[in-house]
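Final report, Chapter 2: Outcomes

The project's central promise was a pipeline that accepts a single protein chain and returns its three-dimensional structure in a standardized token representation, suitable for archiving and comparison. That pipeline is now operational. To close this chapter, we reproduce one record exactly as it appears in the project archive, with the input sequence first and the structure output second.
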Amino acid sequence: MMQIDSVHFYVTDAGKTSNWFTRYLGFQLIDSYQDENTYTEVVEHNSICFIISSARSKTSPVADYLDSHPEGIVDVAFRVDNLQSILDRAAQLGIKIIQTLQQEKEIKYARIVGWDDLQHSLIEYSAQNRYYFLPNLRCQSFVLNSTANPRFTNIDHIVLNVAAGELSSAVKYYQNLFDWQIQQTFNIQSKHSGLYSQALVDATGQVQFNINEPSDPHSQIQDFIELNGGAGIQHLALRSNDAGEKTRSNNIIATVAQLRSRGVEFLPIPSAYYNNLRQTVKRGSINISETELQAIEQQGILIDWHRDLSQSLLMQIFTQPILNQPTFFLELIERRQQAQGFGEGNFQALYEAVERGQQKMHLYR
């Protein structure tokens, strides 16, 4: 068993970033903590937990991180049921163990180095409670709140960008460490640039971790590497309710409309995309009504599908960058009828949408 447990952000103002998640996305502030060096707030929504820290002194690990990187994710924590065996394997592979195995009551935890400056906290505990880590490695338990009308169910996947030539090594790193397998491989090219990507998945399918590398010097992934000061997490995807689950009011279309009304900005999609989509609908390749298609176009959502399953739709949209540099954004995703994997059509359209956004910000060379 393996799950994404929490994500830890290092930012310049933890309160401001925490407030963005609570105000715009409906997260709840569940705790705050400070020591002489670091201030931290913890927000959650359904099973999603974000830990957000900022520096109170120059000796804070947050200050050290922000000397070399913009605001972003420093730690992706995984809940596991075989912590000791993972640590044994990490030692055999020569992977640095930042925090050795600790135990407090029923919880065991440790922290290891991920790719480049990324870290991974590893946590083993019973199903009754959730735990998160604060900067002084204090373990805190909490019971998940039943958020009224939750917009998101979980973190669907996380995307790591690595430097040119590092994709194969990064993929092998995580395969050897966690026994992840390659689910899909992509070669995405626009008129200006491109990327190579591999999507990894754990044995249970609960952890999806995608890795991108630039295919040329003009790639948006290369822009990220330069702005970020090296490899790092480009985005994570929040999964919206399937339209057939419980209530249609919480699917991705309704969620995006509500977030737009609150002021969340998304990457625009050209009208030509939806003209082509309508032709696909007319050919009967996908099963979607004109009313819903109009709503999808109005909200700027992308759709992909399996050729043999017209109702199995993958629906995605990207926010504009949400931190102090254009190096991190969020994706919203709906997997209708349990659509699996990632559609190449959506990947292409999303890549081009990000590229257009970079051109507007004069990042494209």
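Archive annotation: The first helix runs from residue 14 to 25.
This record, like all others produced under the grant, will remain available to the consortium after the project formally closes.
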